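Appendix B. Raw example, untouched.
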Amino acid sequence: MTRAAASTDLPDDRYLNRELSWLDFNARVLAVAEDPSQPVLERAKFLAIFASNLDEFYMVRVAGLKRREETGLSVRSADGLTPHEQLTRISARNQELTKKLGRTFLDELLPELEANGIRIQRWNMLAEAEQQVLGRYFDDHIFPVLTPLAVDPAHPFPYISGLSLNLAVTVSDPEEGLRRFARVKVPDNVPRLIRVEADREQERATFLPLEELIAAHLDKLFPGMDISDHHIFRVTRNADLEVEEDRDEDLLQAMERELARRRFGPPVRLEVTDTMSDTMLELLLRELEVDEHDVVEVPGLLDLSCLFQLDKLQRPELKNPPFVPATHPAFAEGQTPKSIFATLREGDVLVHHPYDAFSTSVQRFIEQAAADPHVLAIKQTLYRTSGDSPIVNALIDAAEAGKQVVALVELKARFDEQANIKWARTLERAGVHVVYGLVGLKTHCKTALVVRQEGSAIRRYCHLGTGNYNPKTARTYEDLGLLTAAPEVGADLTDLFNVLTGYARHSTYRRILVSPHGIRLGIVERIEAEAARARTGLPCGIRMKVNSLVDEQIIDALYRASLAGVPIRIVVRGICALQAGVAGLSENIEVRSILGRFLEHSRVFHFVGIDERWIGSADMMHRNLDRRIETQVRVVDPKLTEQLDAMMDSALDAQTRCWVLNAKGDWEASPRSGEQVQDHQAEMLRQHGAKVS
């Protein structure tokens, strides 16, 4: 049945706009930064997260809309808006959020930081002794790397790289009086916030933005010239790669070529300080070929992602209490580690990061496999990993020990392409069989398969997760992983890796669902099964936890289940195109969003009536369900399903701090002020026994 045919009984205006929904998500990030109950350095970090999120949104999503608008593609969004209409609404909403960001930074964060001895100052606010110290730092470390670029008939307007911070300077010759434009790029290989060396007391820290230091010494860059004014600006460029995959071309070489092109993408946003002169702005618009609607006036500092630097300050009283992830009790007896393989022969284990330590579970699984002489083969997918990856090192050790090692490295992992190219080459040199997946599809699933000789038999051990094999993000991203020696899962992963590395074709599996063919179909079938139970009066219900909910077929199935009487409760971290609580459409659906110190990243599906629980790597989005290899695995062990239920109970508790999507499409903070509040992540820390100090 086609989507159009299946949806004739539902209203045309049943979807929220995905781009505006994403901006609503980032507004919730900003709301955490506005929360005075949060420690001040945590508030600063959320401002930085907001800023970096917005950069990526413009580089990818806005860039895509602009490309459609410029090429005349009249593809409307699911809610019926043209690319131009979406861009107009995005611009208005972003201006609103940028003003709120500036107010939060200038009026709330800076005073609170200063009250705690942390200052971010302008040059003219520093004491003379501090200026002298920084002046010497400029002469020794900054001045030698600066290259002022003048614009005149002999010097064309310089190329402005994406996300670079720049000073636009107006200079004039005192004899001729002719005014000229010059550009000075703020170097990105030195800290943006410079610590004043004269102020090194433990409880105090004074910082000067690098552009302020450069601006204070422009006379050294333009000796003998009069400097009329200077302004800060920043350009965001289209960074969405478009790799034309050809079966006859090496994908590695194609990716390297496209990465070289990325830095020359067209501008999609121009950020300027709200004090920039009209004359300077007009010049930038003309030379950069930027539309005035793409200009964002920023109060205060441009690019507040620099606030990530403050997290390095040794001020624990101004941050969330540090925690130490606990080793999952299945993998230790007291303080003594247990064999992962022996544990999994006893039964499945569900790990919940960051509460359960990644290093003593998933990482140790791969490391033990690499060192075990009985292990014959290791097969693993790598989407994103860390700079010094113990997982990659273990795969290299295994290959050098003579084991058969296969690594599927996804070269198209957005913004990690360069790192993954490096890992692919390193693994190849070590003798690992490196493959790049299937033409036209990203491999986003998180799977590992270990084949072990045990006596006269072969046993397969598996990991399937919702997050990347990255020890660093495993301490800040909330994710789930299933470790199992179940024969049916081992057979499923064997079939899947044969698809990924060879020419095998499998459409049905035993305990997993695989996109692009199986996940949407499998999820819709289970939603419909719950709806059928509701129509006959049988117990039913759906509980879901995802990062994004955009796919129209999934949403329509949920609408119909709601109309049939199925109670549906959904936790969505980011984008949600579903309208919740609308009479005659979705009054049985509740949608909430949880943000906290950890990034909620796991995907969980609980179909109550048919008693099935699934976890996996896929969000309910077109790209995940149509253009990626993703996996969902069914969790069957009663001890593990009880663990999943406890997690979902906490996330959906009426007292859990969250935002709830109302029938108007707005997000409301819940519980209301004055009501008892529970922190879901604090509850998870308590349940898992992670040590908080």
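End of appendix B.
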